[in-house]
Amino acid sequence: MGRWVRPEVYPLLGAMGFVTSMVVFQLTRNAFLNPDCRINKEHRKMGILENKDEGEKYAQHNFRKYLRTRQPQVMPSLNRFFSQEDN
């Protein structure tokens, strides 16, 4: 184990840990909250699910509602700094 755990490897382990946690989060979210995913046996028996409200709730989640009120800028302070004219 000492051969692999060196200080040069720590950033790689951190990045891989972060990406793995993001993948687990997204897969869990899709498996349990996506209205198209049918884990329940009753839902699997149905050919087409009539769940427009559930689909709308899934698509318009709280993070998307929050971003709707924000300006579409990545770094607003940096944009302001470079857009100001020199006097």
Principal-axes shape call: flat
Strand/helix succession: HHHHH
Helix content: 55-70%
Hey, roughly how much beta strand do the residues contain? Answer: under 5%
Overall domain count: 1
Biggest sheet architecture: none
Q: Give me the count of strands.
A: 0
Head-to-tail CA distance between termini: 60 Å
Extract low-pLDDT stretches.
none
Q: Number of helix segments? A: 5
What is the SS-derived class? mainly alpha
- What is the C-alpha radius of gyration, as a whole number of Å? 22 Å
Tags for this model:
mainly alpha, 0% strand, B12D, transmembrane helix, transmembrane, NADH-ubiquinone reductase complex 1 MLRQ subunit, membrane
Characterise this structure.
It is a single chain. The protein is an all-alpha fold and 87 residues long. It has one domain (7-83). 60% of the residues lie in helices and 0% in strands. It has five helices and no strands. The protein has helices spanning 10-33, 41-45, 52-59, 62-68, 76-83. The longest helix has 24 residues, at 10-33. The radius of gyration is 22 Å and the shape is flat. The chain starts with 9 loop residues before the first helix and ends with a helix. The relative contact order is 0.06. The model has no long low-confidence stretch (mean pLDDT 81). It holds the Pfam family B12D. The chain crosses the membrane at residues 12-32. This is NADH-ubiquinone reductase complex 1 MLRQ subunit.
